[in-house]
Design a protein that fits this description.
The complex is a heterodimer of chains A (244) and B (81).
Chain A lengths: L7 E4 L5 H12 L4 E5 L3 H13 L4 E5 L7 H13 L2 E6 L14 H29 L2 E6 L12 H21 L4 E8 L26 H12 L10 E4 L6
Parallel strand pairs in A: 1-2, 1-4, 2-3, 4-5, 5-6, 6-7
Helix pairs in contact in A: 1-2, 1-6, 3-4, 4-5
Chain B lengths: L6 H14 L20 H15 L5 H5 L4 H11 L1
Helix pairs in contact in B: 1-2, 1-4
Classes of the chains: A alpha/beta (244), B mainly alpha (81).
Chain lengths: 244, 81
């Protein structure tokens, strides 16, 4: 970790699944990590314990990213705890699946609020410090759903496609300040969120298997590294070839 | 923050920021336009952030549209601080 100034990484929705794997891998790469959680404090604490058990630094901070007031507080608390946030991973995500014809306003709005608007609020807030530091890494966890169709997930697809569009434009806006903005787009990954959904899926995946959270986290770890300093505005698919 | 903010307090802070953006110090004076100094919209947003942090003056995007020179910016900050 030679080139970057001292600072911390903030992983939203970092208590479980892909977020927890990302938090652990960033800690392994030398980042002090703030593990944000919405409701599952015990799981967040467990992620922190796992990081500390192998010599990393981490702390858990609660906060619902769908609440517009959360971004400012979360960034301030994270900075106070582990230093200025120079790596933001917008991972927090929810699902509320339904065919579009039956999708309620609440189901639409809640998914957009957490998965897209929350990511924007956090990104805007984090950029303030990053452009002053002349260094930053923003990585949003999008999805193969969005670039590709998935019936029953119009809200989720809209949010994730929105993340990719947001990533490209903000990347261009801040590129000359040493801040990179990228996305990863996981395909079918074995987590609690996809529990029960993956039984028949491997046949559709060229790699013939579902992915593991650690395989997504490894890509985030790369995008957060000094080595990825010239990679910006891109979306890295982690999907076993599904989108190819 | 002092009770009264003067141009002598504001101008050096903003000049330092402009130099930080890569503007040659000798090119900076109160009357030269930001456009001539190659200061772009991202630089202006960062200047507004510095003004907020150092002098407690919040500049909106609309305010920035009427600010074309360092002198304009200093005068605006002093009048609102």
């Amino acid at each position: 970790m030679s080139g970057r100034p001292n600072g911390s990484a903030l992983v939203t929705g970092g208590s479980r699944g892909i977020g927890s794997a990302i938090a652990r891998q960033l800690a392994g790469a030398g980042w002090p990590v703030v593990v944000n959680y919405r409701a599952n404090e015990a799981a967040a604490a467990q992620t922190v314990e796992r990081i500390e058990a192998v010599g990393g630094r981490a702390t858990a901070i609660g906060g619902d990213v769908s609440d517009p007031a959360t971004a400012e507080r979360l960034l301030a608390d994270a900075t106070a705890a582990l230093g200025p946030v120079l790596c933001l991973v917008n991972n927090a995500g929810v699902r509320a699946d339904n065919l579009a014809l039956a999708l309620s306003n609440e189901e639409w709005e809640s998914v957009i609020a957490t998965n897209l608007t929350g990511a924007f609020h956090l990104t805007r807030q984090a950029l303030r410090g990053m452009i002053r530091a002349r260094f930053g890494r923003i990585i949003s966890v999008a999805s193969i759903v969005g670039p590709r169709a998935n019936p029953g997930q119009a809200n989720y697809a809209a949010a994730k496609a929105g993340l990719i569009g947001m990533t490209k434009t903000i990347a261009v806006e801040v590129a000359r300040r040493g801040v990179t903005v990228n996305a990863v787009a996981p395909g079918f990954i074995e987590t609690e969120m996809t529990d029960g959904l993956l039984d028949e899926i491997p046949d559709r995946v060229p790699a013939r298997r579902a992915g593991r959270p650690e395989e997504v986290a490894a890509c985030v770890r790369f995008l957060a590294s000094d080595d990825a300093g010239y990679v910006t505005g891109t979306t890295l698919f982690v999907d076993g070839g599904l989108a190819a | 923050m002092p009770a009264t903010t003067t141009p002598d307090q504001v101008e050096p802070v903003l000049t330092e920021a402009l130099i930080g953006f890569g503007t040659p110090a000798e090119a900076i004076n109160p009357d030269v336009t930001f456009e001539a100094l190659d200061i772009d919209s991202l630089d202006l947003v960062e200047l507004a952030q510095i003004v907020d942090e150092r002098f407690g003056v919040e500049l909106k995007t609309n305010d920035l549209k009427d600010i074309h020179t360092l002198g304009d910016l200093v005068a605006t900050v002093v009048s609102r601080a």
